[in-house]
Amino acid sequence: MKILAFEQLPYRQLPEDFAGRYDSVVTTPYHELVSREHMHRNHVDFLDEMMLAARLGFDGLATTEHGQASYDVLPNPNLQIAALAYATQSEMLDVALACIGRSLGKSREPLRIAEEYAVLDQISGGRLIAGFPVALSYDANQNQGVPPIETRARFTENRALIEKAWTSKEIFAFNGQYNKHAHVNLWPRPFQTPRPPVWTPAVGNPNTLAGILDNDDVFLYLSWFGPKLTGKRIFDRYWDMAEERGRDRNPYRLAFCQCVAVGETDESAHREYRPHVEAAFRSGLGSIPLSGLGLPGYIDIRGVEFIAKDPGDFGLVPKMRTATYDELVDAQCCIVGGPETVRDQLLDLVRNFRIGNLVLMVQHGSMPRALVEKNIALLAEHVLPALREVWKDEAWVHHWWPKGRGNERGARS
Questions:
Q1: 121 by DSSP, 3-state: which?
Q2: DSSP assignment letter at 140
Q3: CA-CA distance, 71 to 282, in Å (whole number)?
């Protein structure tokens, strides 16, 4: 299987009482809380940490996108991916680069995304994984001013335009509802042909899963809700829908994002990581008002009916801001422990749910650089070797891995 190191880029110096003082990560006052020296250091540390993961043997590096939010100051993650693409190319590190977020539901310039992704694929020699999430409601509709009812329609149209722009041999006109171009003629095109593999982050909405399967993308499940509470229902739904649509049960169709924190022992891990894990959820996901995750019109009527009948997909989200550390760990919102504990819990998740791509979130909330680097190093030495052996006996072909130089797309792994 494939294992990627993943980080968001939070402002790591938020006050300990953030959740009690501020209503939302998207209305937090900047100048009241931010030191420019700390913000600069956070950005540099992020890049250094990701490069460490590449050097220590992770198969890929992953980033995502959020605008106007203190818990992830990556409004355009392609900037960071560009730096990582050049640095890894210079050091001849054959790692995939997964930009698992350029939200098409909020984009008014999808051709710009297509061009940027093409440039990244060229710099890296064909190591890009293109992420196309719909968009979080608060980000698309509140921060970016896209009417909620347009979000998913924009996503569909923008995805179609990008696909055609990447693959068409001829210059073409495009006359859509949201995009109108007299001619489309992308320079450059991606290094990979016909295009980079696409991974679509989602939380398990049946309509979104149907689109992922119909497009033959990878479903990247975002697991902050607690996989012990939500995993079986989401993954069973996905594999059942795959079978209904005539797709095979190739585990590489599925990617899973999981927060992890590894110490020398269970006791030391809980002691070292506890405050940072608590901060990550209380000042991050837990500080996004639930009303901002699904504004009226963002979710279609079928989705509303589904949630009303069965709200269990959201796991711990309704109480994320007040959940205790023990509750977060028990629900596996973050897997914390010594190497054996973390390894065994990850192996159980991977095998039980047929996960072929594991995206490990290695930095949480206020975690300082030294602790992040320790987490990465312990994972690389003690956890990754066991995970890599999963699925080898079934000999599946990974059709969704970059096929650039040194990366044979379709190679057995």
A1: helix
A2: I
A3: 10
Q: Give the separation between CA 308 and CA 295, rounded to whole angstroms.
A: 15
- How large is the greatest C-alpha to C-alpha distance in the chain, in angstroms? 63
CA distances from 43 to 72, 139, 152, 312 (A): 11, 21, 31, 36
Which tokens belong to 373? 């680097």
Q: Does residue 73 contact residue 10 with C-beta atoms inside 8 Å?
A: yes
Mean pLDDT on 161-178: 97
Contact 287, 231 (CB under 8 A): no
Q: 34: which residues sit within 8 A by CB, 6+ positions away?
A: 11, 13
Tell me how far apart the alpha carbons of residues 355 and 200 are, in angstroms, rounded to a whole number.
15
DSSP string spanning 393-410?
Answer: GGT-B-TTS--STT--TT
Beta bridge partner(s), residue 220:
201, 255
Q: Is 66 left (phi over 0), alpha (psi -120 to 50) or beta?
A: beta
Task: Quote the tokens at residue 369.
Answer: 């650089």
CATH classification for the domain delimited by 2-394, as one of 3.30.300.30, 3.30.70.270, 3.20.20.30, 3.30.1370.10:
3.20.20.30
Express each pLDDT in 194-206 by its tens digit.
999 999 998 888 8
- At what angle are helices 227-244 and 206-215 packed, to 10 degrees? 50
Per-residue confidence (pLDDT) for residue 317, from 0 to 100? 57
> Could you say which DSSP state residue 243 is in?
H
Tokens of 108: 């008014």
- Contact of 24 with 86, CB cutoff 8 Å: no
How far, in whole angstroms, is CA 334 from its chain's centroid?
Answer: 15
Sign of CA dihedral 325, 133, 126, 76: negative
**Three-state secondary-structure class, residue 360:** strand
DSSP string spanning 214-264? HHT-EEEEE-TT-HHHHHHHHHHHHHHHHHHTT----GGGEEEEEEEEE-S
| Threshold 0.90, pTM exceeds | yes
Domain positions in the chain are: 2-394
pLDDT of residue 154: 94
Matching residue, tokens 């205790």:
324
Task: Report whether 202 contacts 212 (CB < 8 A).
Answer: yes
